[in-house]
Amino acid sequence: MDATPEQEWEALTRPGFGRRSSSARTITDWQPGHPITRSGEWQGTSFEDEREVVEVEAPSYHWLAYDVRAAELGTRVVLEQVSNRTSDAAGNAAENWRTMLDGLKTVAEAAPQA
Description:
Strand content: 25-35%
Oligomer: single chain
Low-confidence stretches: none
């Protein structure tokens, strides 16, 4: 991604980002021990997934898990989800997260540099 880690983190954690980057909505205050809820619609079916914020280290977040760090040509963002119950669920999640990461790239690259 052609943005700084700080821009990516700001875009990822800013309220309302989820609706600009994917069809899912993320609600959290990013405080450890507090809930993080993603909701939306996937292939015509509504979903809501609530987890707990484990740890936050701006600009790196490690658990769902996001890893945001500077790379040689911009920023590397890695997202890992380990709670899928089936390979079909993992494939669906991967497609959903790809859409979210593409949206993150668009939003962060449009943000002013700090």
